[in-house]
TrEMBL record:
GO terms for molecular function: monooxygenase activity. This is Antibiotic biosynthesis monooxygenase. Keywords: Monooxygenase, Oxidoreductase. It holds the Pfam family ABM. Residues 41-72 form the ABM domain. It comes from Halobellus litoreus.
Amino acid sequence: MSMGTTMTTIFLKHTVEDYDSWKPGFDDHASTREEYGSAEDYRLFHEAGNPNEIVMIGEWESAEAFQQFMEESDVTEKMGEFGVISEPEVYILEETEAKSAECTGRDGERRCQFYGGRLVTRGRRDDYAPDRWTGRELGRCQRVLGRSRINE
């Protein structure tokens, strides 16, 4: 997908017998998801206190591509093999708004921003000017910069 192309966001929730047994199967199925239009990026969550209640949020080329994946691929069979024990709860989402925190380098140029919950950076770690960040973005950038791989 080229930059600026609108993607469809998929929210999928289901229960698995055991997360640690399910996850390798999910990982092995990545090429099939990509074949049907899934972006490589996704986020996995579990319900607080219940690691077997899984939520996947991912990007797809279109709602139609995701529906085709659900209907035509081997995903239903594989879900059973991987230990999914509930019907998936699926929401096909269209973005209405997104806000990203930005941070600047010491030269005043934009060096990074938050996108999809991740810090996207450009430059070296010492290029960042935390004194230019304010409020929640300051704490968030400092926490993430402390453990992120910075693109050179």
